[in-house]
Amino acid sequence: MNRLPLPEAVIFDLDGTLFQTETLLETVHRRVFETLRNERLYTEATPPIDKLLGSLGMLLEDIWKRVMPEGSPQAHERANVLLLQYELEELSRGRGSLYPGVPETLAALRRRGIRLFIASNGLELYVKGVPEIKGIAELFEGTYSAGEFGTASKVELVRRLTDTFGVRSAWMVGDRSSDVEAGLKNGLSVVGCDYAGFRREGELDGSHAVIRSFPELLDLLPEQEL
């Protein structure tokens, strides 16, 4: 595996990178569409969960256009509210898992003096809630979300983060094309995560390195740092 230059910081996507989203979303997805039908905001069958999982990384408004294109603006707005409500409820019940090795790998990066951040296109309370509930929040210097800052793209969100925290060199780590784009357009090294199982073909093209388990991240550090 090719090693990358030692970064000052590492910026992580959340879903499909740190967090096994499908372990939470299978239940949340079902509950959202049951409620929409009960409230007569949506009358179609529940879309396949794979359609939602395959849309992760997009902004929420774009997710619902893809998952339920026949849904009204009111259904999409209500789905936003329900998604967050049910995600937080299920997280508080213990549902959802980090990928194997995430806490240990993050702690190892911190011990080497590397600053850690999260940048996600999700809603603010969800993006901050997952690390908090899963016990890794204290490892991150900052957690940025499109939901909090109203950014129109991951590129803009990452640029805002690096500017705010004065980050000069970093790795962008994520599983979607939006993460690759955000890293490349901000002049960062890009590490693609190929273990989530719901990415599209060619999605990680342009990455400087690709890992197939989270702990492989440590193998990318320069040898003298190991």
Automatic annotation (TrEMBL):
Key words of the record: Hydrolase
One GO MF term attached to the UniProt entry: phosphoglycolate phosphatase activity
GO cellular component assignments: cytosol
Keyword flag Hydrolase: yes
InterPro entries (alphabetical): HAD-like_hydrolase_sf (IPR050155), HAD-like_sf (IPR036412), HAD_sf (IPR023214), PGP-like_dom2 (IPR023198)
GO BP: any one term: DNA repair
PANTHER family: PHOSPHOGLYCOLATE PHOSPHATASE
Official protein name in the record: HAD family hydrolase
